[in-house]
Amino acid sequence: MEAIVQQFFNVEIMAKALPLVLTGLWTTLLICIVVVPIGLVGGVLVATASLSPRATLRRMVKLLADIFRALPPLVLLIMVYSGLPFAGIRLPPLAAVSIAFFLNNSAYYGEIFRAGIESVPPGQWEAAHSTGLSATQTFLWVVLPQGVRNVLPDLVSNTIEVVKLTSLASVVSMPEMLYSADMARSLTFNASPIVLAAAIYLALLWPAVRFVSRLEHTVSR
Amino acid sequence: MRPSDPIIDIRGVYKRFGTVEVLKGVDLAVAPRELVFLIGPSGAGKSTLLRCCNRLEEPDDGSIWFDGVELLSDKTDINAMRRRIGMVFQSFNLYPHMTALGNVTLALRRVLRKPRDEAEAMGLAALRRVGLAEKSKSYPSELSGGQQQRVAIARALVLEPKMVLFDEPTSALDPELVGSVLAVMRDLRESGMTMLVVSHEMRFAREAADRIVFMDHGTILEQGPPEQIFTAATHERTRAFMAEVVR
Amino acid sequence: MEHFLDTFFKPAIMASTWPAIAKGMLVTIEIAILVVITGLALGLFLALLRTLRYRLLDLLIILFVDFFRALPPLVAVLLIYFGLPNIGINLPSFAVLWLVLSLVLAAFAEEIFWAGILSVRRGQWEAARSTGLGAGQTLAFVVLPQAIRLAVPPLTNRTIAIIKNTALGSVIGVPEIINNATTAVSFLGNATPLVMGALAYLILFAPIIAFGAWIERRFAWRRS
Question: Is the pTM of this model over 0.95?
Fold first, then answer.
């Protein structure tokens, strides 16, 4: 028991590692601020394309989305970060992370947005058109808001996944929170810095997880 | 228990939901072979009283004697008692993942532990009694509302209960399907089953009930044979309700 | 173009590395199967525990579930892999990966099963109890069969998402696909193994995803 506290809950070491971990937290948040919006926008684009009347566009987008949903995000990240240099493209870690996550997230968000858009009754489109709104206006002001509300639990849930995904950036040596915590671990031979990072992740994400849980239990009637 | 003792004897039952008192000291006894109709405005407590009879609702006070056993006592094996009181629900509540026969025989097999052949034979007999033997292999989703409710009645009957509780059995049915269910209920009455029915089917009440009980605001205001309640009710409220309800 | 093909699709390298990639696929499949079995079993068990309605137990389960839903799996993997040896517990990396992913799947699965159980209409409980079935029997024969069918669509999606995390094993040395691929890449100075690794994942997951879709079609009920 003593040993467990010493190895995992060593407050002294946590205190020493805190500055490093907090710097890592900044980077984590930076990645989130970049990756979440472009993922959302990408998702809306993918959803729109997958509902396009043009069959070839639909099929191509579906194929690409399926591929990027089937590939584990870590694999995608490694391919972009380690593979592209072989083609002469050397990307800084943030760019590699952004591209890999954009591809993965757009596919997932796209699926969610598509389900949301499809869940809006056709009558809404008809009503909007009959009052003179164009297709784009209808989409932006009538359909999308309703669609989003219908799939809100899934959107929040996926966004939680995206925030968790940022920890993968540590694998390509980006100094986000897990990387920093792990570095502190290797310097101190003690796992407490990682416990500290875990606690911060939990503080960040637990409210959102609770929120989704509550939504899931009320929405599913 | 003597042959003339009531099958079910409800005494002084109180039930509260939060701050609302839904049952305020109700006394009701149902004799063997009687068909008792519970009527009254919504919120009168009729369904709640019915559901207290098999402890789907737990009364806050009072006693309910069924077949010589105090239902509300801690020592009572409620599962064993529930086999002897059948219940038919407004929304049928058939198990969607089982066939009609499966629905009817589940309790026979799992609770009474009857072997499969015996259970299926009893189940088919019950389905035959409600006129649905040929639908034994159908799933609830393949049956009409009236058929589903009749299967639900078979499910209650197959356990050979001493009495059957009906909670608005036809309220969720399309009008043209109501008749088939009422016919089964009429048959049941003919065969001597004791029945306690909450329903708005006034014509059925008039022709089939032995006694009509009028409830309002958690108490029994008046009770008596159909003719009395329909034409010569003593309470003002009873007369007002009957006037509203009878076309 | 020549150079591109040579860098990413060199046949000679494809031939020489494909055994390693295939071995990686086997490892990935092994872990995936184990994780699915233990994760789903534990998740269902926890959901069943919640039907007992003991407040303390409920709270503990909720804490466990929230924890593994909020924590990035890689954090848990590194924590256990590097931390346990220092207190005397030496788990092979395969076991660490299996343990973490099972717990994560169990957490998500519990929520999904529990939501399924809650979705079964109260009338089903009442009808079953009114025929004398006990609480346990009602759960086993009436409620769970319905709850599980309701749980199938979200469960298949979530399970597939979680077993993709087997790739995390590469970080702690599990010889799965991407690990073997990157080893080959640095050894050979050519990106072809990476492409093969990606293809291996696609080959592996395409049937899994199709299988998931089949299970959905066959067994799932949608809420009407």
Answer: no
CB-based contact A138:A74 (threshold 8 Å): no
List, in order of start, the domains of chain A with CATH numbers.
2-219 (1.10.3720.10)
Q: Check if the beta carbon of residue A147 is closer than 8 Å to that of residue A9.
A: no
Q: DSSP secondary-structure letter at B241? A: H
E-strand ranges in B75-182 read 85-88, 163-167
Of C124, C130, C146, the CB nearest to B82: C130
Predicted local confidence at residue B185, as pLDDT: 94
B110 contact residues in C (CB cutoff 8 A)? 133, 137, 141
Do B93 and C123 count as a contact with CB atoms less than 8 A apart? Answer: yes
For CA atoms C97, C99, C103, C109, the dihedral sign is: positive
State the best of C120, C124, C131 to mutate against chain B, taking most chain B CBs within 10 Å. Answer: C131
- Residue B196 CA to residue C157 CA, distance in Å, equals 49
Q: How far apart are CA C215 and CA C213, in angstroms?
A: 5
A:C CB pairs within 8 Å: 135
Domains of chain C: 2-219 (1.10.3720.10)
Q: Is the pLDDT of residue C65 over 80?
A: yes
- The answer, for C75 touching chain A at a CB cutoff of 8 Å, is yes
Q: Which domains does chain B have, with CATH numbers?
A: 8-245 (3.40.50.300)
Whether residue B71 contacts residue B64, with contact meaning beta carbons closer than 8 Å, is answered with yes
Model ipTM over 0.95: no
Mean of pLDDT values over B129-147: 94
Q: Quick one: closest CA in C to A162, which residue?
A: C72
What residues of chain C, 103 to 122, have a C-beta less than 8 Å from chain B?
A: 121
Is the CB of residue C17 less than 8 Å from the CB of residue C196? Answer: yes
C52 alpha carbon, distance to own chain's centre: 26
Contact exists between A and C (3 or more beta carbon pairs < 8 Å)? yes
The H or E element that residue B121 is part of is: helix B116-129
pLDDT digits (tens, 9 = 90+) for C178-212: 999 999 998 888 889 999 999 999 999 988 888 88
Region C98-124: mean pLDDT is: 95
